Structures are given as structure tokens and as C-alpha cells.
Amino acid sequence: MGMSEFYGPHDDEQSIATIHRALELGVDFLDTADMYGPFTNERLVGRAIRDRRDRVVLATKFGNVRTETGGRLGIRGDAAYVREACDASLQRLGVDHIDLYYQHRVDTTVPIEETVGAMAELVRAGKVRFLGLSEASPETIRRAHAVHPISALQTEYSLWTRDVEENAVLATVRELGIGFVAYSPLGRGFLAGQFRTFDDLPPDDVRRNFPRFQGAHFARNLALVHEVERMAAARGVTPSQLALAWVLSRGDDVVPIPGTRHVRYLEQNVAAADVALSDAEVARLEAVFPVGETAGARYPDMSSVHR
Question: pTM to 2 decimals?
Fold first, then answer.
């Protein structure tokens, strides 16, 4: 996402070099969406994997409708739009199939059975291999899974966003045998310790609009991150590596997807897979960041999540 929009300036050639380095290091799962850019990130990923498609598990998403100029037209999950969006993504990506196709946000005006039914048609047509949902509630996940097996549920999950542990989302996917993909596992960069003041965010950075990055919330959350930094220093790792190691410790069914535009941060993130946390370290991290400890809502408007 950040390679094309939302997090300040971007450089496509640098991003492609980062993707190529990721593949060299054994990363094989790439996550994009039609809305990123909008539309330009799928084209970027398609360029990056054109001569190495067989090395990639490719995931993209539909549902957040945007115009070419970036306007937002709401959420759609009707069958006709599912088919239209998939064909458009295949063209932009330059591939003949998508490995994992997510509904990016649930359209509450359309029965989930209709949406997943249309997605299942894509599987039968060979355009998609596996189906996923993003930010769906336990009830929605169950109803969707009854129509066609859901392979992955993507939701924000990190030390500073542990909602899925108490709202039954994580328990539900585990009961049903659905994989969990943790987006923003570094707390949108906050857990990396790269922000010390609100003004560290670029002027056009979307995070300036997020409650957790504003005012007293920023100060409170920064104090929590300082604890992570102290633990990371004691272990001889970066704060990002410690935060990712915690997500990885949640289980083999939890797959974090940290995003970065820079090779050096990519290499640090990959190295987090070798950071094994002791039970005591996990307990200490969770004592610093218990469920609900982070100040502020995840989004300015939470109405589109967990529906």
C-alpha cells in the first residue's frame, strides 16, 4: 500500500527493487489491493513479478470503490461488481489468476452470501484460487465460510491493536481453520520508533488523520513504544523486529504483512523471523500493551470495520 499512496512520496523503481529483494530473501507472499493508488499499486506489483510469477503467492482485494482521480465511492459487494473488479485486477496485474482474493471491506447492503457466491464463481472459472475477507465480524465470517471455504481473514493485529483477541475474530477463524493475515503489524510504523512528534509525519501522510497519531493520544502511545525500545535494546534487536517477533509468536496460522518501501527495512523485517521470544519476554510485552491499552481509535471512522 505504502509504495503507491497514503504514506508520503513514493518511488516505483525503489519499490520494485524492494520487492525483488524480498523474493531473494524467501518472502513469497505479496499483498495489494485495487484501491491502492488507486489502481497503480496493482500495476506496480505486476511489473515487479512479471518474470517471476511462479515465485509469488499473490493477494489482492476489491470492495473499496474509487475513481481514477482518487475519489471514494463507498463499498460494493454485489455480484456484478465482484466479477468486474476481478477482471480489472487481473488486467492491471498482468496475470491469469489471483492466488488469494479478498473482499476488502464488507458491504452491509448486500448479503455476504451473494458476495462470496460470486467470488466462488471466480474460483470455478480459474481466475482465483482461494478466497479471503478483511475486517469481517465473526458472524459474517461464519456465513461466508458456509457458502465457500474462506482461506484467510485479514485484519489489523499488532502489539498496539489486539482487538481480535477479545472480539472473537481470532477464535472464530481458528475454530474454522482459516488463516489469519495481520496487517499493520508494526502499528503503521509507530512501533518502529520512527515518530517522535506529530510533525515527523509527512504533510500528505494519511496517518495525520488517525486518532492514535494525534494530541494526547500520540504522547500516550509514544510512552508505550519507549518500553518496547528498551526491551529491544536489551535483546540487541530493533523495535520493529521485537514487534514482529511478537506477532510471529502468536502461532503458525498468523502471518504478518509488514510494508516498507526500503530494502534496509525489509531486511530488518525478514530477520525478525529469527528472533525467538521467551515466555517471559512475551508476558512483559503484553503487560506493556494489554488489550485496549493503546490510546485512540484505529481509524477516524470505524464504521467500515468488523461488520
Answer: 0.94
